[in-house]
Amino acid sequence: MAQTQSGAEGLTSLPALLHRNATKFADAPAYREKEFGIWQSWTWAQAEKEIEALALGLINLGVNEGDFIAIIGRNRPYMYWSMVAAQSVGAVPVPLYQDAAAEEMAYVLEHCGARFVIVADQEQVDKVIEVQEGLHQFEHLIYLDPRGLRKYDHHSLHQFSHIQDQGRAAYDEWIEDLKERRAKLNYDSTCVMLYTSGTTGKPKGVVLSNRNVIESARYSSEFDKLRQDDDILAYLPMAWVGDYIFSIGQAYWCGFCVNCPESPDTMMTDLREIGPTYYFAPPRVFETQLTTVMIRMEDASPLKKRMFDHYMAHARRVGPDILDGKPVSFMDRLKYKIGDLLVYGPLKNTLGFSRVRVGYTAGEAIGPEIFDFYRSLGINLKQLYGQTEATVFITAQPDGEVRSDTVGVPSPGVELRIDDNGEVFYRSPGVFVEYYKNPESTASTKDAEGWVATGDAGFIEEGTGHLRIIDRAKDVGKMADGSLFAPKYVENKLKFYPNILEAVVFGNNRDECTAFINIDLAAVGNWAERNNIAYASYQELAGHPQVLSAIQEHVEEVNKSVAEDPMLSGCQVHRFVVLHKELDADDGELTRTRKVRRRIIEDKFADIITALYDGSDKVSTTTEVTYEDGRKGSISATLEIRSAKVMPVAQQMAAE
User: Fold this and answer.
1) C-alpha–C-alpha distance, residues 388 and 176, integer Å
2) Is residue 607 part of a domain?
């Protein structure tokens, strides 16, 4: 039914949607970008011309149908145009993480066999040149920003604007070829290939068709009533499926404007200036913003601090109910309105959320306290559950049914089932075509009937139909006494505290749980500054006795909370260590989407884990690190191991 509807309109590819938007919304803004402090804007009609010029230039350069074109850079209109231009000529766009190291890029470029690479600047050019000897099919490199590249060998190196100029000059020569290639595109044509984050091994190339992307965009846009006059801020990695579906899929389906910040450093300022109506961020972004708010309140006058605490307590009590349209007394509504005038409104404006109509978070579970904080301000923040293999959407939360402990109901067009071992399976129009060059993994993930294994453990609530995710199926285990071990549940509670940036909990098949903690340098550094505590490095601050005592208090508070859940009360943290370095994607400890690589961490810090369980008070360790320029080095430290109070499980059960 869905296919017929879209097919009848002829909207079976991104170039077809682009043409519709350039005709129907010709003068409406399609893209904005802040450059040199000024917002530049392109209408849909202008964007179509820019993309057409690039597509003609690519044909002129020798791009064939079926070629792979890698795209590396931060969020810029030109990079998004590259992806649509690639599809226009029958090629397959493959966005890569711009902060990936050269060897990580080499794997993806060689695996997909990219003949062409489009990059943002000299940094990315240098990475590709560094590994090009091992890329057997690579031929041409196109760069956007010419700074620093004047003296490079330009035999196979081309400026983006020159390729467009050549395309315009060769219009008469190639326009019929371009029209033919666009006309061949249908629902089964490959739209994009996105690589997984590789939490357990090498990234896999996920092939998504036009059907996957357009149907997912259509269903989700209708679900949240997205409109042509909506605005989003495109700042998430372009290689991530979330950015692809929001900044290309939904943007092209609805015709709304994609706004690109000037740089990662100005993102928060640009967010306030744009005031998006539709906003997505992973939990880490919301955690960081909340940390910033709490730091500012610590520096506020006593009167402002008291007013903030007073009205936020009221907001937490009635804000979510007002947002969901539930009954709230007149006096409570009046007090909330006063709070909105004095606290919530200015705070939302500072965060850039004044106009947000629909907000989402996903990628990993968000701490309930963080989630409730934003909703109490009147921000319609919801959770969705998705995967690259699903073209994002598996479940989402309908308005009025938003809760912090579930990820919502099946998204439109999605079927769910729970396997005997508790693993979640789904089937939908968004289910990926295949893993590129990997039929074994494709077969083990997607069965003949189209059901896909998520790798996550969960259950569907009776009555509400909401899905609750417990943890990654491979991470859920048993304690030595047989009780449930779900590390993510505890880690999310720990990360609610502004002082804690990351936590990794251990305990599978053991008598008790232990944890690694990363402090948040911004939050703890601010505290040190206010208390006249001098420190020379992250390592020195992380090992400060007062910092360790503060973290211990947080761990013990979390233990009290965990003890209240009979099913997971065995996951209380008995001993912990504050690590001497931040977990880092460059060191392989996190994925590029900031997910913890547990197995690598367990291997790399095996000596510290041993010390956590053998009763040691201290442990001396040396760890290899990667510097920003790619050089390797090592840091040594002696870490203090702390014990935390736990609430006896038997006592808890008796109290119930």
Assistant:
1) 35
2) yes
213 or 629, which is more confident: 213
Distance CA 430, CA 425 (A): 13
pLDDT, residue 9, reads 65
Residue 1's pLDDT is: 36
* Secondary structure element (H or E) that encloses residue 426, with its range: strand 423-427
What's the pTM value of the predicted model, to 2 decimals?
0.84
Strand 573-578's sheet: what is its strand order? 500-506, 513-519, 573-578, 632-643, 618-626
Please name the helix (run of DSSP H) or strand (run of DSSP E) that holds residue 622, with its range, or none.
Answer: strand 618-626
State the Cα angle at 648 between 646 and 650, rounded to 5°: 160
Length of the chain: 656
85 shares a domain with 25 = yes
Sign of the CA dihedral with 486 first, then 489, 493, and 498 last: positive
What are the distances in angstroms from CA 472 to CA 57, 302, 457, 458, 628?
45, 44, 6, 9, 31
Residue with tokens 């804000």: 319
Distance CA 247, CA 257 (A): 9
Q: What per-residue confidence (pLDDT) applies to 482?
A: 87
Residue 385 has what pLDDT?
Answer: 93
Does 251 lie in the same domain as 136?
Answer: yes
Strand partners, 452: 426, 446
Residues 482, 359 share a domain: no
Task: Give a yes or no: residue 303 inside a domain.
Answer: yes
462 domain residue, yes or no: no
Range of the domain at 311: 281-379
**What's the distance, Cα to Cα, between the start and end of the chain in Å?**
52
Asked if residue 401 belongs to a domain, the reply is no
What are the phi and psi torsion angles at 256 (to 5°)? Answer: -90, 175
